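Schema walk-through. Below, the input block comes first and the output block second. Nothing else is stored per chain. Lengths vary across the set, and this one has 168 residues.
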Amino acid sequence: MKPMGEQYKPETLNVTKMLTGTGDCFPAVVALVKALFQANDIDPKLREVVTLRVATLLNAPYEWQQNSKMALNTGLTQDQIDAVATDGPVQGLSPEYLLACSAADQLVREGTLKDETLSALLQRYDQAGTRKLILAIGYFTLLAMFLNGCRVPLETTDKVGSSTSPLG
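--- output ---
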């Protein structure tokens, strides 16, 4: 995919506009985003739970703004979304979501997973599913740092609509 450069549509997300400025890295980033948002082993609700948890942990307001809307679009409730935003350990969610939040907490705060967390992930998912979830947490951590580092401004209009992906 060719970067959009300076020519983009007003309805394009600010993150996409900023990513186009990465030049020859842009096609690879878009390919990874597509892969993560279309991965068979990652439920869209679970993906949004870990994305919002990472956004909370790294104080990434743009990531939170866009993904809280996508989370609602996947079927998460506002109560579930609010539970992910806690400063302490996440509570009140399904065991699957609690495990994913714990994995995100450990990877963001400690840079690795505890053995028992990795074992629990492998029991819940197969090896490929566990790897994809860890990759998703890593990607959304990278994205939060990119968004914050580049000072990507919040959207002033709803560009997500009913989508569950930044790619439409």
